[in-house]
Amino acid sequence: MFTRIVKMEFEKENIPAFLSNFETVKQKIRSFPGCTFLELYNDKNDETIFFTYSRWNDEADLENYRNSTLFKDVWSVTKPMFKAKAAAWSVDTLHSLA
What global pTM score does this model have? Predict the structure, then answer.
């Protein structure tokens, strides 16, 4: 299992449309085979910066999602709203304290 973190910076006027679209697609993303967790974060100091935090069973599951019609549909709506290019990291959990 690993975590995917994606940083997205939006034009301020596009934030309501992004949030509305996320509300529509979040359950579809979370239900995609191999996705075990999904959260959306908003930066405390810059309202235009958002992060998605998702957990995947393995890299093949994430790649299947990234090659899916669902991802292409989500990204085709989301990407034009960006103020800056998105950045993404795939990370392994070394320690977790709950």
Answer: 0.93
**CA–CA separation, 14 vs 56, rounded Å?**
28
Q: What is the Cα–Cα distance from 90 to 98, expressed in whole angstroms?
A: 21
Distance CA 2, CA 57 (A): 7
- Report pLDDT for 16: 98
> Measured between alpha carbons, how far is 13 from 16 in angstroms, rounded to an integer?
7
DSSP alpha helices (H): ranges in 11-95?
A: 15-30, 59-66, 69-78
Identify the three-state secondary structure at position 64: helix
Q: How far is CA 2 from the centre of its chain?
A: 14
Q: Strands 2-10 and 49-56: what pairing?
A: antiparallel
